[in-house]
UniProtKB/TrEMBL annotation:
GO terms for cellular component: cell envelope. This is Lipoprotein. The keyword Cell membrane applies. Pfam families: LppX_LprAFG (PF07161). Residues 1-18 form the signal peptide. Belongs to the LppX/LprAFG lipoprotein family. Keywords: Cell membrane, Membrane, Signal. The keyword Membrane applies.
């Protein structure tokens, strides 16, 4: 399994920043005058005279948009040597996140991967590893054994990272925030920000730095980049609408929409579970 995932290491190196941002959801926003950015595209704001915002002020805005609970529809597109397309829905609240996500990675030749997150447990279906309708379970203990974030900072007794820990990691991973002005994404009014990021700082804040270094060394990659630049669009209620980043030749594009819509996901029946193909 690790061999299969090795080409994804450059993308994984920024997940400590992208994923926490993607988890901040809410509902639709009001109107602003704007430059238009088509859905699925990221273009510089028309006004090149960018002003700056402190990382703490930016995180405060993100915090205000999270609320105690919410949901969103996510669309992911990765281009480069390990291209991938994914789509799914996530719901979060005091009991932790739940959701469903499908991912297609043509280079892996496995068809469409399906992941279900229910009651702090991940259920995964991978063509070639599971028969149609079957899933294997990835719980905290198995993830930790594979070198995953099974014992990250802020992980509570229910295996969930607290929102404050995630927000602290976001702030630790931001070096600079530029405000690039009002635009629209998919017809919705948004504000465009450009972030200079420190992936290692975010990983350290989450207690994952050693594990991230170990994965990059094992894979033969050069390591976690010292600095990355990401473009982020927040709606009028400070909820993430779009996130774009390029890392080591791979581009990652994430769109969030359909805020507040119900998410219906159930764990697979016991008869549909099979042993995990790795330990």
């Amino acid at each position: 399994m690790r061999l299969v995932l090795r080409p994804l290491v450059p993308v994984v190196s920024v997940c400590a920043l992208a994923v926490p941002l993607a988890a901040c959801g809410g509902s639709e926003a009001g109107d602003r005058g704007a430059t238009t950015v088509a859905a699925g595209a990221a273009e510089p704001a028309a006004d090149t005279g960018a002003s700056t915002l402190s990382p703490s002020a930016f995180v405060d805005r993100v915090r205000s948009g999270i609320g105690d609970s919410g949901s969103a529809h996510a669309v992911l597109r990765v281009t480069g040597a390990m291209a991938a397309d994914g789509e799914g829905d996530v719901e979060y609240g005091p009991g932790g996140p739940e959701g469903r996500f499908t991912l297609s990675v043509p280079a892996m030749g496995t068809g469409e991967i399906t992941a279900l997150l229910v009651d702090h447990t991940l259920y995964v279906a991978v063509p070639g590893m599971t028969q149609p309708g079957q899933y294997f379970k990835v719980d905290k203990e198995l993830l930790a054994g594979l070198g995953g974030p099974g014992h990250a900072k802020g992980m509570d007794d229910h295996h969930s990272m607290s929102p404050e820990v995630v927000l602290a990691a976001i702030e630790a991973g931001i070096k600079k925030v530029e405000t690039l002005g009002a635009e629209t994404v998919g017809g919705e009014p948004v504000e465009h920000f450009r972030l200079t990021l420190d992936p290692q700082g975010a990983a350290e804040a989450l207690g994952l730095a050693d594990k991230l270094d170990a994965v990059t060394k094992e894979s033969g990659e050069s390591g976690v980049p010292d600095s990355l630049v990401a473009d982020v669009w927040l709606d009028a209620e400070d909820r993430l609408r779009q996130f774009d980043i390029e890392v080591e030749g791979a581009t990652v594009h994430l769109e969030l929409s359909k805020w507040g819509e119900p998410v219906d996901v159930e764990a697979p029946a016991a008869k549909d579970l099979v042993p995990a193909p790795f330990r």
